[in-house]
Amino acid sequence: MKYPVTYYCPHCETIVELARDGYLADKSVTQYPLDGWSYVSVDDEYETDGDGVRFVCGKDGSTVDPNVDGCGRPFYLSFVRKGTTEAGSALIQR
Questions:
Q1: pLDDT of the residue at 36
Q2: Pairing state of beta strands 26-30 and 74-79?
Q3: DSSP readout, 18-60?
Q4: CA 38 to chain centroid
Q5: Cα dihedral: 36, 37, 40, 45 (round 10)
Q6: Measuring CA to CA, which residue among 59, 61, 76, 60 is closest to residue 8?
Q7: H/E segment holding residue 75
Q8: Which domain covers residue 48, as residue numbers?
């Protein structure tokens, strides 16, 4: 089952939303991509592809309030990578 999960744009604090599985393994939301990480758009299979999601604030259809324009700048949700931390090691068992 998927649940709506919200995130703030780190540039302008616009709220965006993704439908996510019940178990979350989020590392961070940042203004810039992490070096060496791959990101997919909100329209791609973000639960299985890539290391995170690339949002474009107000332009990718993920804003919670359709009347908010957003700033149009990209920002990045990075997931915990499997096996790279204690939390990532727990993901291997899932």
A1: 93
A2: antiparallel
A3: EEEESS--EEEEESSPPTT--EEETTS-TTTSSSEEEEETTTS
A4: 12
A5: 130
A6: 76
A7: strand 74-79
A8: 2-92
Q: Structurally, how many domains does the chain consist of?
A: 1
pTM attached to this predicted model: 0.83
From the number of C-beta atoms within 10 Å of its C-beta (0-12, 13-18, 19+), residue 20 rates as: middle
Copy the structure tokens of residue 37: 């990480």
- As a whole number of angstroms, the distance between CA 68 and CA 14 comes to 8
Tell me whether residue 71 is exposed, middle or buried, using C-beta atoms within 10 angstroms of its C-beta: 0 to 12, 13 to 18, 19 or more: middle
CA distance 12 to 8: 8
Q: Any alpha helices (H) in the chain, and if so which ranges? A: 86-92
User: Is the predicted pLDDT of residue 74 greater than 90, yes or no?
Assistant: yes
Nearest by Cα to 34 from 46, 47, 52, 49: 52
Short-list 69, 91, 85, 78, CA closest to 11: 69
Cβ atoms 58, 68 nearer than 8 A? yes
